[in-house]
């Protein structure tokens, strides 16, 4: 399935660009469903501007308004003098040249999707910084771990999982070039005022700091194979966190080990997030747990592709509303 999707990707991209100004010609039911669900989430274009390092430092209170921090850098909440509020991310790739950074900024500025955090600007001062739209509700991790935050209901959690899967499908199928660095975790899934999920950690630089280039031939296919496996695993972990309300990042609870156990079903009730109470469909929850388990156990060879997972979650949400 993944190889078929990769072969069809150039045609999908061509259709996507043509459909902006004309009605698409006939496509198979499979392609129509995938394209329709992804294109429905596209956002209007926006410009990317340069911010001064001095203004960003002042807006973040000397980089002390930290939202989260990981191996890729820290994220800060910024409030500029004109009242504008934004999320600022530090880029810590020391092997990346300035030209590569500027090229990446240009490419990231061309990504437009409802479930991707929109890039507003950048800075190349003492720190390399990316400026994004402000997310009123903060990160998903905050809502799952902070008792002062409003608990997320089952419908919202399901919509978050669907939104993240939709964004991943867009990055893999409709981004040109396809994105090879995406990190999906409760820390970098941000929520807007309507609890719409937006992935905030996206880039074209791989883990060893290679230059920003458009991959070709076998290297591209190997990269895509690894990317599909990694993202499927990460999505499975995120679904697991949405169900349990627990984090896999701090190491206090080994969620991954639990879901891999053969008798995990007997302990499901103990693992469900208490904030959900009894306000969920037990059959739907167990099916979602089964998907998370397959995503996590499959490793480098996922049994489901991202588009398949997306459509499955979308169907479950439709059944919930009916």
Automatic annotation (TrEMBL):
Q: What is this protein called?
A: Uncharacterized protein
Query: Which species is listed as the source?
Result: Populus alba
């Amino acid at each position: 399935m993944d190889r078929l999707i990769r072969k069809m990707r150039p045609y999908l991209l061509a259709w996507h660009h043509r459909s902006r100004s004309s009605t698409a010609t006939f496509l198979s039911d499979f392609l129509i469903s995938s394209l329709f669900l992804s294109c429905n989430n596209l956002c209007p274009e926006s410009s990317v501007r340069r911010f001064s390092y001095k203004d960003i430092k002042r807006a973040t209170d000397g980089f002390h308004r930290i939202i989260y921090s990981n191996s890729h850098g820290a994220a800060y909440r910024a409030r500029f003098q004109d009242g504008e509020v934004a999320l600022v991310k530090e880029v810590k790739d020391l092997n990346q040249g300035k030209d590569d950074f500027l090229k990446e900024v240009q490419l990231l500025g061309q990504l437009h999707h409802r479930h991707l955090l929109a890039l507003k600007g950048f800075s190349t001062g003492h720190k390399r910084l990316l400026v994004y739209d402000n997310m009123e509700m903060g990160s998903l991790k905050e809502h799952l771990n902070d008792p002062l935050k409003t608990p997320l209901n089952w419908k919202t959690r399901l919509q978050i999982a669907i939104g993240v899967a939709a964004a991943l499908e867009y990055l893999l199928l409709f981004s040109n070039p396809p994105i090879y660095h995406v990190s999906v975790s409760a820390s970098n899934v941000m929520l807007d005022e309507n609890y719409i999920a937006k992935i905030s950690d996206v880039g074209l630089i791989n883990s060893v700091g290679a230059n920003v280039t458009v991959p070709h031939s076998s290297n591209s296919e190997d990269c895509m194979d690894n990317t599909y496996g990694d993202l499927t695993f990460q999505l499975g972990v995120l679904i697991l966190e949405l169900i349990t309300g627990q984090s896999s990042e701090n190491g206090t609870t080994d969620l991954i080990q639990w879901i891999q156990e053969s008798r995990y079903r007997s302990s499901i009730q103990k693992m469900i997030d208490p904030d959900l109470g009894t306000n969920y469909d037990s059959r739907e929850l167990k099916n979602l747990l089964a998907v998370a388990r397959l995503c996590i156990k499959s490793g480098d060879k996922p049994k489901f592709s991202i588009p398949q997972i997306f459509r499955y979650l979308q169907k479950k949400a439709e059944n919930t509303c009916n």
